[in-house]
Specification:
globular; three-stranded antiparallel sheet; 74 residues; mainly beta
């Protein structure tokens, strides 16, 4: 079975600065992610940290803007 999920988010912050985003496609027991991509638009810094027990990633961004758009990547 294949499932396709396409999501667009717009995050608004009270002040510019660092943010933690928990947005991921994570394979779990007997599930496989064949392709996943995310575009964070304009951010000053982006770091990906492995998730707990090797599932997914934690994403930390720093932005000079109060709005961050998260859209499917190419």
């Amino acid at each position: 079975m294949q499932i396709r999920i396409q999501v667009e988010l717009e995050c608004r912050f009270t002040t510019p600065g660092p943010a933690f985003l928990a947005v991921e496609a994570a394979g779990a027991f007997r599930q496989e992610i064949s392709k996943a991509s995310i575009d964070f638009g304009r951010v000053e810094h982006l770091a990906r940290v492995p998730g707990e027990e090797g599932i997914g990633e934690k994403i930390i961004i720093r932005t000079a803007s109060q709005i961050v758009s998260v859209t499917p990547g190419g």
